[in-house]
From TrEMBL:
<feature type="transmembrane region" description="Helical">
    <location>
        <begin position="125"/>
        <end position="149"/>
    </location>
</feature>
<feature type="coiled-coil region">
    <location>
        <begin position="252"/>
        <end position="279"/>
    </location>
</feature>
<protein>
    <submittedName>
        <fullName>Glycoprotein M6B</fullName>
    </submittedName>
</protein>
<dbReference type="GO" id="GO:0005886">
    <property type="term" value="C:plasma membrane"/>
</dbReference>
<dbReference type="Pfam" id="PF01275">
    <property type="entry name" value="Myelin_PLP"/>
</dbReference>
<keyword id="KW-0472">Membrane</keyword>
<dbReference type="GO" id="GO:0045121">
    <property type="term" value="C:membrane raft"/>
</dbReference>
<dbReference type="InterPro" id="IPR018237">
    <property type="entry name" value="Myelin_PLP_CS"/>
</dbReference>
<dbReference type="GO" id="GO:0022010">
    <property type="term" value="P:central nervous system myelination"/>
</dbReference>
<feature type="transmembrane region" description="Helical">
    <location>
        <begin position="79"/>
        <end position="104"/>
    </location>
</feature>
<dbReference type="GO" id="GO:0051612">
    <property type="term" value="P:negative regulation of serotonin uptake"/>
</dbReference>
<feature type="transmembrane region" description="Helical">
    <location>
        <begin position="217"/>
        <end position="239"/>
    </location>
</feature>
<keyword id="KW-0175">Coiled coil</keyword>
<dbReference type="GO" id="GO:0061564">
    <property type="term" value="P:axon development"/>
</dbReference>
<feature type="transmembrane region" description="Helical">
    <location>
        <begin position="31"/>
        <end position="59"/>
    </location>
</feature>
<dbReference type="InterPro" id="IPR001614">
    <property type="entry name" value="Myelin_PLP"/>
</dbReference>
<dbReference type="GO" id="GO:0043209">
    <property type="term" value="C:myelin sheath"/>
</dbReference>
């Protein structure tokens, strides 16, 4: 019975050490950045797609009853929805690639003396990811700023409705003089009819489900774009650090190779010297 108990404990120790070794090779920083990137892109794409559809419905029902007035805007919004599909697909693949690159660099650094060796191709790929992530980060800063524009527009409409609902304004003759002209934002032409909504009609628009959902979805989409920017900055720091580690690892490999070669040459010289000495004696 005693040998079996000892063998069982040894197997548990081996499994525990194996699990610790596996967990030590996980790039937790890249994993956190990947989850944040996926969450931000999902919020931006999902909420942005639904919010754009709600915006078109509000314009068609209240601000631009003539289809030809907002035909161009409808085409642009439809194109943006297709672009959202492409962004979601691209960042799903790109996040997985960056996570895999994190596993690669972690293994390359931690198993420097093993069978796995860093190569010039691996360092070149890491440098390419640093540059591409930098470009994407700058692009997403623009996306984040652009996504704040509809939030600003909807906030202005909502704040105007709150003014109409306020007790100081309620019951006075000036309610119908409080208006919102959507044409001033440039999304529909100046000849669009009616283009401007005032008073109680504007208050009714703010009470619709389309306005409420679109406003809050645009806010969430803007927050998702901001989370994506943070994730890309996080990725950029990780990739830069990993590239530096790989560069140092390659130098260490070259030093070890030269040292091993010199030791081998020294051993060969010593062995030849011994052979010559033995031949003389």
């Amino acid at each position: 019975m005693k040998p079996k108990i000892i063998h069982y404990r040894k197997s548990n120790t081996c499994c525990f050490e194996c699990c610790i070794k596996c967990l030590g090779g996980v790039p937790y920083a890249s994993l956190v950045a990947t989850i944040l990137c996926f969450s931000g892109v999902a919020l931006f794409c999902g909420c942005g797609h639904v919010a754009l559809a709600g915006t078109v419905a509000i314009l068609e029902q209240h601000f631009s009853t003539n289809t030809s007035d907002h035909a161009l805007l409808s085409e642009v919004i439809q194109l943006m929805q297709y672009v959202i599909y492409g962004i979601a697909s691209f960042f799903f693949l790109y996040g997985i690639i960056l996570l895999a690159e994190g596993f690669y660099t972690t293994s390359a650094v931690k198993e420097l003396h093993g069978e796995f060796k860093t190569t010039a191709c691996g360092r070149c790929i890491s440098g390419m990811f640093v540059f591409l992530t930098y470009v994407l980060g700058v692009a997403w800063l623009g996306v984040f700023g652009f996504s704040a524009v509809p939030v600003f527009m909807f906030y202005n409409i909502w704040s105007t409705c709150e003014v109409i609902k306020s007790p100081q304004t309620n019951g006075t003759t000036g309610v119908e003089q409080i208006c919102v002209d959507i044409r001033q934002y440039g999304i529909i032409p100046w000849n669009a009819f009616p283009g401007k909504i005032c008073g109680s009609a504007l208050e009714n628009i703010c009470n619709t489900n389309e306005f409420y959902m679109s406003y809050h979805l645009f806010i969430v989409a803007c927050a998702g774009a901001g989370a994506t920017v943070i994730a890309l900055i996080h990725f950029l720091m990780i990739l830069s650090s990993n590239w530096a580690y790989l560069k140092d690892a390659s130098k260490m490999q070259a030093y070890q190779d030269i040292k091993a070669k010199e030791e081998q040459e020294l051993q060969d010289i010593q062995s030849r010297s011994k052979e010559q000495l033995n031949s003389y004696t």
